[in-house]
Structures are given as structure tokens and as C-alpha cells.
Amino acid sequence: MFTLDGRRALVTGGNSGIGFSIAMSLTRAGASTVIIGRNNKKNIDAANLLQKINPLCSAEKFDLSDVSKIQTFYSRLIKKYGLFDILINCAGATVRKRADMIGIDEWNNVININLTSAFILSSEWAKSLISNNRPGSCIMIISLMSEAARPTTSAYGASKAGLKQLVKSLAVDWAKFNIRVNGIGPGYIKTDFTEPLYKNRDFSRWVVSRTPLGRWGNPDDIGPAAVFLCCDDAKFITGQTLFIDGGWLASF
Q: Which domains does the chain show, CATH number per domain?
């Protein structure tokens, strides 16, 4: 059960945090995994760890905020590696400012990385599978902020809410090709991305008190769910978002 033997996976934002945890879980389940990241040193370090499990794993440096180059980049990827059975859109960015203080360039950067790049990359990925009559599984990494809001999250929340709806739209468009699209909505997870939050003692206490399971999540809490959603055991699941949040959304 829950095997990905023989599958090839592509994970954006896969060199650290939630992305790396997912990449590691997919690899342990049998996939050969390629990660995409902007930081070459992090890419190399992450790829070395993945290659200890599967020597076919690799890393590619690319900045997904440059959305005009994604199509060319993906064409180069499939020429180098072949078709990808699995796509994980995990790359993310944020700007923690009150809405009226966010510059348009800052807004566009968050939207481009979190939403537009995921749409373009997913579309290119699906085209390659459809033209070769191949099934596939895509996962979008969403957020609690697609369902709730707190101060300084307007750009991030808007991008993640859009991504949650994109899951449904792509799932409906591509179901007839046996291409499934689902989302995972992590709760408050300890990563480099959230370090300013969990190092804030008051905020961290609030998270723990607000979460029924009484703790911050870890990246390792996310990876196994991605394996399940990508494997054949989940072949009748599409258009869904699974929130892994310790009960945060269920609590008032």
C-alpha cells in the first residue's frame, strides 16, 4: 500500500521545510524525485540526502517568480528527465505587512510565486501527460489562510485562496484524462518560512493554545499525506483539500 515505485516526481520549493519533507516521503515511497529551488547550496544539500535513498533524485535551480520563463524551463526538464507522474507545487512567498502598506511589486511577487507559477507549471505538466496519454497526480500546498485571516496576511491569503479554488478547477478540467489534482493545507508548521512567527513567544503560545492537539506541526507531519494522495490507493480522490492543522480550523 501507498507505494510510488517507478514514479517520477517534481517538487517546487523542495530544498527545505515542507517541500523537502514531501520530497523525502515521495522518495522513500519509491519515487525518483527532482526538486526545484532558488538557493543552489540548499538544492545540493537536499539532493544529496535524497540520493542516499534513490540515486536518480536530483535538483534544479530556478526562480519561479519569473513566470515568463516557466514554459521553457519545464520543456528543458522533461527533455532531461522524461515525463513527471507527480507534481507538487510547494514554492511559496509572503510579505508580512498591513494591506495598505504593501507595494504593488510586493503583491505581484507573492501572487506570481504562490499562484501564477503553480498554474503555469501545472498546465505545462498536464499538457505533457495528456499528449502522451499518461495519468498523473498534482498537489497544491495551500494554507490555513485560504480559510481564515489574521493581520498582515492579505497577499498571502489571497494567493492561497486562489490556489484552493484552482485545485477544484483543474481537477474538473483534467479528470477525463485521469489526472488528479488535490490540495494539502498545512497548519502552523515549524520551518524557516515561519521562523519569525514561532520565535515570537506570544504568537507561538497563541498557536499552541488555539490548536486542539496543542503543538506546532513539523514538516514530517505533511509528507505522508502527500504520498497517500499521489498513490493508486487514492485514485478516486480529486478536487479535495486536506488540512493538516492539528484541529486548528475545527476549533473556535
A: 8-190+219-244 (3.40.50.720)
Side chain identity at residue 223, one-letter code: G
What whole-number distance in Å separates Cα of residue 129 and Cα of residue 181? 13
pLDDT for residue 1 is more than 90? no
The residue-averaged pLDDT of 55-67 equals: 97
CB 178 within 8 A of CB 238: no
* Assessment of whether the complete model's pTM goes beyond 0.90: yes
Determine the pLDDT at residue 252.
74
Length reported for the chain: 252
Angle at CA of residue 24, ends 19 and 26, nearest 5° = 95
Residue 249 is placed in which grid cell? 480550523
In the annotation, is 156 catalytic? yes
Find out whether 102 and 49 touch, Cβ atoms under 8 Å. Answer: no
Crossing angle for the helix pair 117-131 and 70-81, to the nearest 10 degrees = 40
